[in-house]
Amino acid sequence: MIIRKCIPVHIKIIYDGLTFALRQHMSSADLPTPRTVRDAASEAPLTQEDYQRLAYFRHHIRKFLVFSETAARAAGLTPRQHQALLAIYGTRDSSAPTIGELSQKLLIRHHSAVGLTDRLVSAGFIRRVNSPRDQREVMLRLTPKAKRVLFHLSKRHRSELNRIAPVLRAILSQLEGRTHRTRQNRSTRPPKRPLH
């Protein structure tokens, strides 16, 4: 999936989290891909019901964001620090990311990632280590303290995502079902005759 840099990091993290939660309840064939979403958006006219569903969906995303921000602050972190710890620990290949990779994951500028890293090091949440493959490259690793905090936060977030997943899945299914019906209606119509 390609996400433009202008999209706030919390939206990408929510998208990733929602995708994970939805995958727990649906097969990957049931999940919309960016391509099908784009195609569907160009095909189906929006109804008042669509606007209501989109508003309801956005409301639930915002509620999740407030939940996430509140949980992070209760754990002694800013929301961005929590996102950074999750991005560092959630690196796919289990290697520690560099500051540049962290800035890409959080969709922030490199100098902002440096400042964020400095604050997390000062607070005892992460440490900088030299890369075994290139001593000039600095990698970021969580401390045991950070792992404990992240574990508790992640459990709460997973629980909340599992709680709201049925609602979000229903909204997405309704929107996708309407788009599917629109496509079917278009495919059963006779082709328009060209005007001569």
UniProtKB/TrEMBL annotation:
<keyword id="KW-0805">Transcription regulation</keyword>
<feature type="domain" description="HTH marR-type">
    <location>
        <begin position="43"/>
        <end position="181"/>
    </location>
</feature>
<dbReference type="InterPro" id="IPR036388">
    <property type="entry name" value="WH-like_DNA-bd_sf"/>
</dbReference>
<feature type="compositionally biased region" description="Basic residues">
    <location>
        <begin position="180"/>
        <end position="196"/>
    </location>
</feature>
<keyword id="KW-0238">DNA-binding</keyword>
<dbReference type="InterPro" id="IPR036390">
    <property type="entry name" value="WH_DNA-bd_sf"/>
</dbReference>
<dbReference type="InterPro" id="IPR023187">
    <property type="entry name" value="Tscrpt_reg_MarR-type_CS"/>
</dbReference>
<protein>
    <submittedName>
        <fullName>MarR family transcriptional regulator</fullName>
    </submittedName>
</protein>
<dbReference type="GO" id="GO:0003700">
    <property type="term" value="F:DNA-binding transcription factor activity"/>
</dbReference>
<dbReference type="Pfam" id="PF12802">
    <property type="entry name" value="MarR_2"/>
</dbReference>
<dbReference type="GO" id="GO:0003677">
    <property type="term" value="F:DNA binding"/>
</dbReference>
<dbReference type="GO" id="GO:0006950">
    <property type="term" value="P:response to stress"/>
</dbReference>
<feature type="region of interest" description="Disordered">
    <location>
        <begin position="177"/>
        <end position="196"/>
    </location>
</feature>
<dbReference type="InterPro" id="IPR000835">
    <property type="entry name" value="HTH_MarR-typ"/>
</dbReference>
<dbReference type="InterPro" id="IPR039422">
    <property type="entry name" value="MarR/SlyA-like"/>
</dbReference>
<keyword id="KW-0804">Transcription</keyword>
